[in-house]
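Sequence in, structure out.
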Amino acid sequence: MPTQSPLAPGSRTGVARSAGATTEPHTAAPQTPGEVTVVDPAMVKRAVSAAALGNAMEWFDFGVYSYIAVTLGHVFFPSGNPTAQLLSTFGAFAAAFLVRPLGGMFFGPLGDRIGRQKVLAITMIMMAAGTFAIGLIPSYAAIGVGAPILLLAARLVQGFSTGGEYGGASTFIAEYAPDKKRGFLGSWLEFGTLAGYVGGAGLVTLMTALLSTEDLHSWGWRIPFLIAGPMGIIGLYLRLRLEETPAFAQMEKEAHAREKERRAAEKRIGIREMIFGQWRAMLLCVGLVLVFNVTDYMLLSYMPSYLTSELKYDETHGLLVVLGVMAVMMGVQPFVGKLSDRFGRRPVIGAGCVGFLVLSVPALLLIRQGSLAAIAVGMGALGLLLVCFTAAMPSTLPALFPTKVRYGSLSIGFNISVSLFGGTTPLVVTALIGATGNKMVPAYYMMAAAVIGGIAVLLMSESARKPLPGSPPAVETEAEARQLVATGTAG
């Protein structure tokens, strides 16, 4: 639990109720309107790094699995039918999405009960173990049907742990960050996502170029998955070095000050209350995550297949274009996060929704022209619009819920929306193109998502530069804290 010291000279982390307060560290004092949390800059940096690394691990696996799917089909599903092999491989991949809501329902409430840091350490261990285990599974030729069964089991472990990862990581950063920098610091979470995907996909592309098909099928495919072991140890080390977030620590401090019955009731908040007790915020969360993930999966996961299968574009060039777009997104991600702190979350996310509504059709028409320049411009435009979501959502979504249910409600809402709408995007769009014969379906699908996201933006409250619900104001320096107390704007 972080040290919470008085607002006094030399203190770096603290909760102050008034200038010159003399509260002892760790004493149980109820929150008052004048309290202000002074964050420790070094601890904030460690929190952001540890949270972002977990997201990077998740998407490193995503990139590896997507790019090496054909090879995995040969190793684990040797039916002799390439299409059946690929479908089986992606079936195991999709299974992880089915258990994500279950992971959210388990880890989310647990994080609200025992603390964010403990649960994020558990999800890190499970994610690393699941990915590392895939690299150790014998091939179908060695153990027969046991190989695909073990692959499915490892994927289910990954999916279950992922259900508690994003909600916890975004909550962790949001509760550590000072109010005026929450957007900028939160944007690094999705920077980790992009870095992980680029790293995984880039590693597979490099291995494919350097290794023969025989070597790749016999042992080379294991290398990217085995890398997850050392990455997981590093991530676990970083997360175990963290203290609990100030917001959760403050809630715990208040709980200890109350009588036993009330504290026990507060700490045993059920899933029913997390969903139905927060129904308005939950609906907003689902709508925001819908537009975020439909556009994300459309651009980063589906478009390479669209270029190859629908437009007959060279597969390697299509993948390289997507990797280039993600590299550009990484470059502008922190700057858009700063914009969300300055101008607000609603304008930034709203700009993304309007952009997808207006530019999806022109961008797809450019992509369909087939030239490298046209594809790059069209994909680049969609990528820059997507940054409006990737940069602002990590700070927007946690602010929808109060501290006592934040981890649980966000994890449940996020993963339900991802499983129903985000992860199904490639499958649904492919089916719609097959049924209608209209290759503009991806544009229309993104436009529909933008309308839903736009409605959510109109209904949500602005959260930039404001304390999280149920938490005192958070600032970087004691001077800022004294100013808030002096002007009466604390609490």
